[in-house]
Design brief:
It is built from 8 helices and 9 strands. The chain is α/β, with parallel strands linked by helices. Helix 2 runs parallel beside helix 4 and helix 7 packs antiparallel against helix 8. The longest helix has 19 residues. The structure holds 6-chloroguanine. The site of 6-chloroguanine (6GU) has 12 residues, from strand 5. One of its GO terms (molecular function) is acyltransferase activity, transferring groups other than amino-acyl groups. Specifically methylates guanosine-37 in various tRNAs. It is an enzyme of class 2 (transferase).
């Protein structure tokens, strides 16, 4: 997978050189390039923003640097059609499902907005050269899209085939089955007066699976009632009926 990140704060993306995405790059699974949007400005002050037409507070990112950046990065017509991700608080929520979709793309371009946003024509133009996704990290406001691009990249890259040493650990984690993960324990069996639930020491794999399932459903119902679909409740009912 090739990822290009367009930002006026390239230093913000430095962590991508380390840790998980760094491992993917070392393995040759990921070609990641961070670009300073200001390299595509031509005035003395390297201006990327201006006041909004129609008035109002704040500044809007001007279209020209974005257009020049897309021209430079996407000019080769032979490559895969890119997916262009605009990180914005007015985007669709980022979820594990979206991460899985993006992990299937050959080419991602992150456009990190700042200020009050990017001139809408940049998005309209981008839709003519690639697939446009406007994505938000959640219902709160960050100063810019860089942290979102970082988070999305990490969630996507760890799903690339060959990245995980043990792909089974992917299947079991929170959100993959629509439920939050059950609590986990390791040695010692007793620690500071807290004991590991005895079922986990029983060696009875069916009972352990049933306990974990119940814990996951209970946790999800308490913390994220919005995730508890009827299908989950039905699955759970079936599990109980066959026991
Ligand atoms: Cl993607 N950008 C900004 N600026 N704020 C956010 C966000 C993105 N997601 C949540 N808040």
């Amino acid at each position: 997978m090739r990822i290009d990140v367009l930002t006026i704060f390239p230093d913000y993306l430095a962590p991508l050189e380390l840790s998980l995405p760094g491992k993917a790059r070392a393995k040759g699974l990921l070609d990641l390039r961070v670009h300073d949007l200001r390299q595509w400005t031509h005035d003395r002050h390297r201006t990327v923003d201006d006041t909004p037409y129609g008035g109002g507070a704040g500044m809007v990112m001007r279209p020209e640097p974005w257009g020049a950046a897309f021209d430079a990065l996407l000019e080769a017509p032979e490559g895969a059609r890119p997916t262009i991700v605009f990180t914005t608080p007015s985007g669709a929520p980022f979820t594990q499902e979206v991460a899985r979709e993006l992990a299937g793309r050959e080419r991602l371009v992150f456009a990190c907005g700042r200020y009050e946003g990017i001139d809408q024509r940049v998005l309209d133009h981008a839709a003519s050269v690639g697939e446009v996704r406007e994505i938000s990290l959640g219902d709160y406001v960050l100063n810019g899209g860089e942290v979102a691009a970082l988070a999305i990249t990490e969630a996507v890259v760890r799903l690339l085939p060959g990245f995980m040493g043990n792909p089974e650990s992917l299947a079991e984690e929170s959100h993959e089955d629509g439920l939050l993960e059950y609590p986990v324990y390791t040695k010692p069996a007793a620690w500071r007066g807290h004991e590991v639930p005895p079922v986990l020491l029983s060696g009875d794999h069916a009972s352990i699976a049933a306990w974990r399932r119940e814990q996951a459903v209970r946790r999800t119902a308490e913390r994220r009632p919005d995730l508890v679909h009827a299908s989950v409740l039905l699955d759970d009912l079936e599990v109980r009926l066959v026991q």
